[in-house]
Amino acid sequence: MGIPPKGLMRGSQKFERVTVTLVPTTDERSFRHIPSTFSPSNRTYAWRHYEKIEYMLVPRKISHSEIKVDIFLDLVKKRRMNDSSIQKFVQEFVNAKIQTDWKGLRLGAIGRPIVAEPPNKTFKRSTIEEILGANLEN
Known about the structure:
Order of helices and strands: EEEEEEEHEEHE
Number of helices: 2
Mean pLDDT: 79
Low-confidence stretches: 1-12
Oligomer: single chain
Radius of gyration: 15 Å
Largest sheet: 8 strands, mixed
């Protein structure tokens, strides 16, 4: 069967997915701003820009003890990034976001980068579970 290529190619784009675990602090603001790039106007997840990388944030699990978020990275401009440099970039990105946008959360863990296709579904009905792409837990 062979080893799959490093990064999924769609046209000229290459995507990596890294799952991060965020841990809410005792601050109740933790759940006010769940990290996500969902666009209510387009009813789909959107790409955003940070430094030289395009990224998409898709929440996967939300509970009282943790929030798991898939971070999709478009590495077209950064073809030479290996797994450790991708994880280092994600760590710097998450720490910067915690300081500015994600107050009340702290970084718990960073998964290994894997080849993945980002969601491209448009949501007709916007239930919170559909928008977040996750099941809410107590």
